[in-house]
Design goal:
The chain has helices at 11-26, 41-54, 109-120, 150-160, 167-181, 191-202, 207-216, 220-231, 246-252, 262-266, 298-303, 322-336; strands spanning 30-35, 60-65, 83-85, 96-100, 124-129, 140-143, 234-236, 239-244, 274-281, 284-290, 308-309, 313-318. By secondary structure, it is α/β, with parallel strands linked by helices. The strands form 2 sheets. Strands 3-2-1-4-5-6 form a 6-stranded parallel sheet, with helices on both faces. Strands 7-8-9-10-12-11 form a 6-stranded mixed sheet. Strand 9 and strand 10 (284-290) form a beta hairpin. It is globular and about 55 Å long. The structure holds adenosine monophosphate and manganese (II) ion (2 copies). One manganese (II) ion binds at residues 36, 40, 42-43, 101. The site of adenosine monophosphate has 15 residues, from strand 11 and strand 12.
């Protein structure tokens, strides 16, 4: 599978970087693989896939994420119980550190960032990601912003190295691709994303289960949460926005990850140029942003507040309080307003 495919524009690159990755990994006997806080399907699937490929009798591979809960929509994935929280790691004695789907070290959370910096001083750091805003903080940086998901990159790397992809690994990888592309519907979806998805289907991926869990089946608590959150929705100029408070989570019996799909839903609001979902937390707001408008780059907007991401999906954090929230709404609404000259 794979290497005969000359349709992949950067196949030579993938061969080379894949060799580099497997060479570095072959020297490791105790590997730590991390992904970001508030993990999404791509983050969880990437670390699980990595563990499957690289763990062996002679190599332990620990996998961990920054603070946040694993979304219930991913409960069909195998080995979820192997995932630890970075803050709970019992040892930091590793010989290789791998970050997946993280644009910078800070995406692993405060504790994670300290561990990454500390380990980075003495061991090799591998950084595999598809965010344009990636800071290339690793010793080996495999960054492909053309990829719709980190799992797309991993599939290409595994294929280039002739890794045998069984049906469970294929399901894990396809879950990451489906999650980040909302079921192959985002503009980040390319012909190569479809090629990779087809390869994974041929390898036995269970697309039906992935689609049901990621996009259809929801706990009742999620439905109750959405009801409250959508009830509060409003337009701030051309920005459609709403918020999730701790009280709303408690009333619905939901956790924060159950709000994930709301901002994508809001982005489809006719007349809105961008959508924002603000999660109120004790130490400030976590913001998720989306846009369907070609001329609105939410990564740039999130960057104004120290965040980042992709042009269509990005995020940032704000300090606590209603003033900080309102300032964010004003600045974003102002930035995305169509100027009279550009409105035709
Ligand atoms: P989310 O809204 O949490 O689904 O995130 C959308 C995209 O923006 C993802 O690709 C994230 O990796 C990225 N992102 C979210 N929050 C941040 C942040 N604080 N800094 C950098 N990138 C972020
Ligand atoms: Mn992610
Ligand atoms: Mn991703």
């Amino acid at each position: 599978m794979g290497i005969e495919k000359i349709s992949w524009g950067n196949l030579m690159n993938y061969l080379e970087v894949s060799q580099a990755l497997f060479e570095v990994a072959s020297r490791s006997s105790r590997m730590l693989v991390l992904s970001h806080a508030n993990p999404d399907a791509d983050a969880i699937a990437s670390i699980l896939a990595f563990q499957r490929v690289f763990a062996s009798d002679s190599r332990t591979v620990d996998v961990a994420i920054g603070p946040g809960t694993i979304p219930a929509t991913l409960e069909f994935l195998p080995d979820l119980d192997r995932i630890q929280l970075i803050g709970d790691l019992e040892t930091h004695e590793y010989d290789l550190l791998v970050l997946l789907d993280c644009a910078d070290e800070g995406r692993t959370g405060e504790v994670g960032e300290q561990i990454v910096i500390e380990l980075g001083k003495r061991i090799t750091v591998v950084n595999i990601d598809h965010h344009v805003t990636n800071r290339e903080f690793g010793d080996l940086n495999i960054i492909d912003p053309e990829a719709a998901a980190t799992c797309e990159i991993l599939t290409l790397l595994f294929e280039a190295n002739n890794v045998e992809i069984d049906s469970e690994l294929a399901t894990i990888l396809l879950a990451g691709v489906q999650g980040d592309t909302l079921g192959l519907r985002t503009p980040s979806t390319t012909g190569r994303t479809l090629d990779v998805s087809a390869d994974l289907l041929y390898a036995g991926a269970d697309l039906h289960t992935i689609v049901d869990y990621l996009f259809r089946v929801r706990p009742f608590s999620t439905i109750k949460l959405w009801g409250q959150v959508l009830y509060r929705v409003s337009m701030h100029g051309p920005l459609v926005w709403t918020e999730i408070t701790p009280e709303m989570l408690e009333a619905a019996g939901a956790d924060e990850s159950e709000g994930e799909g709301i901002v994508n839903f809001l982005a489809g609001t006719a007349g809105a140029r961008a959508a924002a979902l603000l999660y109120q937390k004790p130490d400030g707001w976590r913001v998720s942003m989306r846009s369907l408008a070609d001329d609105v780059d939410v990564a740039e907007l999130a960057g104004l507040f120290g965040g980042g991401g992709h042009s269509r999906a990005a995020g940032c954090s704000l300090e606590a309080g209603i003033d900080a929230r309102n300032r964010f709404l004003d600045i974003v609404a102002d930035r995305i307003a169509l100027s009279p000259a550009s409105a035709d």
